[in-house]
Design a protein that fits this description.
With 391 residues, the chain is an alpha/beta fold. It contains 16 helices and eleven strands. The strands form two sheets. It has an eight-stranded parallel barrel with strand order 3-4-5-6-7-9-10-11, surrounded by seven helices. Strands 1-2 form a two-stranded antiparallel sheet. Bound molecules: flavin mononucleotide (FMN).
Length: 391
């Protein structure tokens, strides 16, 4: 495909200079991680998903999750829901209380406990319900742009992304992102960028963003070249590597200057000391977010393997950090670290985060028989929004 010049992303009235989106990731993309990433580069930094029902009920957790730091100039919130009325109420609340500048709707969750009830990536199969949800969100959002994020479908025989993309466009959605996997693929194999290219072609009138397996800035440019997308959505690639956004910014600056340029960018190659500093800063920002140093230190533990991937730190260091109790304890653990140890090269790169294998998608009974909701499927669905996190 002939590379088209990538322009700034335009979602309704919003303009995003660098066409890069931090993928919503439950338990990860809270305001602490978003702030850390934004220090490195431009783009749009989306919250982790928040269920519309919890938001309407104003649970403490959902109210914490919708919060933004004043430095976050585009307040972007991802909602997940299965009911048009509840989604409409959640969007109305965000608008009335001036809590968001952009709202994304999540239709990509592959987790069995969600799809088993007809939620997440199983939902777009029901065309009437999908359309009703996106229409309700757009209607209640007023001039706040609403976007949709989805997977290809339930499995290879039950693809939904082209129909859902068109329905979203017709409902007035400002942009669509596609993760090039089905729910059954889970996180296995390689994301299908051909499907992303197909969606790009099918929706010439709105921005289409591609998602899946961008591990480096070079991957991002390759996706744009191969699929023609207007922007990229980056998830696992930035886990433990917030500086990836500096690489992405540099690569897109060069691409915007000359789409045919093959000038290599110089990726950030942090020393061990720089990694440790970012890790600590992440914990400091989490402390602000949770208003608890103890909780922040518990939370940062899950990031240890990602930050220190490939660095020669030893098992004892990793084990100690995986039980870090406080910032002072972290400093103690860091005391013997070789701060000048160089970036280790390929060992620090590549896949990270969820990589789980394919599994057949659990669905409610007779879900696939009809593309509209029938019988008591609506009642089953309401359970698809309980105790949910992640996509
Ligand atoms: C830990 C984790 C949590 C996730 N949570 C969400 C979520 O809340 N909302 C969502 O739409 N997708 C979620 N996803 C999916 C990602 O946004 C993204 O679509 C997926 O990881 C593929 O992109 P990648 O290959 O760049 O990681 C999550 C993924 C991971 C690894």
């Amino acid at each position: 495909m002939q590379p088209a010049a990538v322009k700034p992303l335009r979602f309704g009235k919003l303009e995003i200079g660098t066409p890069v989106v931090l993928a919503p990731m439950a338990g990860i993309t809270n305001t602490a991680f978003r702030r850390l990433c934004r220090e490195f580069g431009g783009g749009l930094y989306v919250s982790e998903m928040i269920t519309s029902r919890a938001l309407v009920e104003r649970t403490d957790e959902s109210m914490r999750l919708i919060g933004h730091h004043p430095s976050e100039t585009i307040r972007s919130i991802q909602l997940y829901g299965v009911d048009p009325v509840t989604i409409g109420n959640a969007v109305s609340m965000l608008v009335a209380e001036d809590r968001a500048d952009h709202i994304d709707l999540n239709f990509g969750c592959p987790v069995p406990k969600v799809t088993r009830k007809g939620g997440g990536a199983a939902l777009p199969w029901k065309q009437d319900l999908f359309s009703a949800i996106v229409q309700s969100a757009v209607k209640h959002a007023g001039d706040i742009p609403v976007t949709v994020k989805m997977r290809k479908g339930i499995d290879g025989d039950h693809l939904t992304y082209l129909d859902a993309g068109r329905a979203a466009r017709d409902a007035g959605i400002a942009a669509v992102s596609l993760h090039g996997r089905t729910a059954s693929d889970y996180y296995s194999g390689e994301a299908d960028w051909d499907a992303i290219a197909k969606l790009r072609e099918a929706l010439p009138d709105i921005p289409v963003l591609g998602n899946g397996d961008i591990w480096s800035a070079a991957d991002a440019i390759r996706m744009v070249r191969e699929t023609g997308v207007d922007g990229v959505v980056v998830g696992r690639g930035c886990l433990g590597r917030p500086w990836l956004f500096a690489d992405l910014q540099a690569a897109f600056d060069e691409f915007q200057r000359d789409p045919n340029s093959d000038a290599a960018i110089n990726p950030v190659q942090p020393t061990l000391g720089q990694v440790a500093t970012a890790f600590r800063q992440h914990a400091v920002l989490l402390t602000e977010f949770f208003e608890s140093e103890e909780r922040a230190c518990r939370d940062i533990r899950k990031h240890v393997a990602w930050y220190f991937k490939g660095y020669p730190v030893g098992g004892d260091f990793r084990a100690a950090l995986a039980q870090v109790r406080s910032l002072a304890h972290m400093d103690e653990i860091f005391q013997d670290l070789d701060w000048d140890a160089p970036y280790p090269g390929d060992a620090a790169e590549g896949p990270r985060g969820r990589l789980g294998g394919a599994k057949s998608c659990s669905l409610p009974e007779r879900w696939l028989d009809s593309r509209d909701l029938v019988g008591d499927q609506r009642a089953t669905l309401l359970e698809a929004e309980l105790n949910v996190s992640g996509g």
